[in-house]
Each structure stands twice: as structure tokens, then as C-alpha cells.
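Hi Q.,

Before the meeting this afternoon, I wanted you to have the zinc ion prediction in hand. No need to reply - just skim if you have a minute. The sequence and ligand are here:
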Amino acid sequence: MTSAFAIRDDDTSYFTSPDELDAVYAPYWGKIPVSLATVPFSVPEHRGRSFNNRYPPDAEMPLGENKPLVEWLKEKIRLGHVEIMLHGYNHLYQQINGRWIGEYGWKSVQQLLEETARGKAYLEQLLEAEIKVFVPPSNTIGKAGIRTIRHAGLNLSGIMGRGGDRPWTRDYPAAYLKRWGWRLFKGEAYPYPLALGGVKELRAYALTPRANVDDLMRSLKSCATIQAPFIIATHYWEFRDSPSMHETLSMLIDQARKTGFVFTQVSHCFNRL
Ligand SMILES: [Zn+2]
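Predicted structure with the ligand bound:
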């Protein structure tokens, strides 16, 4: 038995250039697939920070209008180096009681149903790729958002929270016990794909500028021992100002290789190897 190792990189959009993705992943193309959580109609401003302040903060920019990126992505997909996942619709935040909330935490179910279907179909047609996984912007998803991705048949890169953050289904109590029982006895979030409401949910491990490298290495070793998948979740744009993230990523990959992980796409981590 082996475990799967995958890279999830968030925020590819109209505002991304292939150079920015190459700056992080050039050493790995063709060796380790990269699953890109992609925003179909991104606004430039995320949580008050702008990817390009020549645009109004709420301008919805279709990915398709960035032709060099589209050509580059299609080639990478064709070669099997890149997988596309859906990362919201426009990644628009709303400030509620002083907190920035991601779009799948505040939009209505009607709006999310319509936008999820439109965003998924748009990317699939534009990039000639099938999308199987949803990555919530800001890792925030409420009941309406969950209903929406279930309707679209997308697995979730993320895992249920405390009581009541999922719509009621008959398999909810058993899934809840599994998820929180693991936390109680093992002190960690549930590490395997969790089937719930007709789709699966699976946690990822965050590589941010503030991530504790020892904790990540410990989690990786623990996943090897218990044969759980290990998805490292990161943002290409954070590497620019935090070059030590390159070393951390490379250390994790080396360790994964030594421990016998199989390098694969995020969508494959939802199936037990
Ligand atoms: Zn994002």
C-alpha cells in the first residue's frame, strides 16, 4: 500500500502569468503534477489586496481573455502536467462584522448554483479539461455552497467543521462521528476522503509564509504511516515575498519521494490507492 502526494495551488486567474507559475513549479513539471485551483471570472481584489490595481476592484475578468495563459494551460493539461480545479466564480469577498468572507460563505444558493454551473462549464470548454474538484475561495463554504457543489458533482478540497455546517443528510451523523472521533482520539483532522451527501471531502495541509515546517514534515510522515493522502495547499503568489517556501516545498517532496508516496493529481487523492 502506498499513499498519494499532490500539490494544490490556488488563485490561477485572468491575473496570473505563466511566468509566475513557472517561478514555483519549473523544477517539477513532468515529474509531479500540479493541480491548479482556478477562478473563471476573477475580480482583481482579494481581501483588500489587489492582483492588479489598474482594474476596478470588482471587475470580473474572464480567464479566456488572458490568451498566453490559456495556451500555456492547454499545453500543460495536454501533457498531464497540470490539472484544473474550480476555485469559486469571481473570488469576491464581502466584509461582514469586520471579517472578510469568501463568496461561498455569503452568496445565496440560487446565485451559487447558477455561477458554479456557469464557471465549471466555461473552464471545461475553454481549457478542454474535465473538472472534478472544488476548492472554496478563502477555504470558506457554508450550507448553500455545499448544496451547490454536490449538485455539480464536485468533490471538496476541505473538510466539514463543527456541528451544523453541512445540510442534513442520512449519512451526516456517521460522517460527523468519523471526522470528530478521529480528532478526539488522534488530535488531527480526519485524514482520509470522507464520503458525505454524494461527494467526498478531503483535507489539505497549508503551506503559507507562516507555516511551521516541522509540523508539515510530521504530518507527512504520519500520512505515510497511516496510508492517507497528503495534499499540500499553497499560493504561487506567496512565494515571491517568502522565498523560504521554495525550500519547504522541495523538502516535503524529497521526503515524500523517500517514503514511497505516489505523486498524483488532487482528484486522484479522493480514491483510495
Ligand atoms: Zn483563493
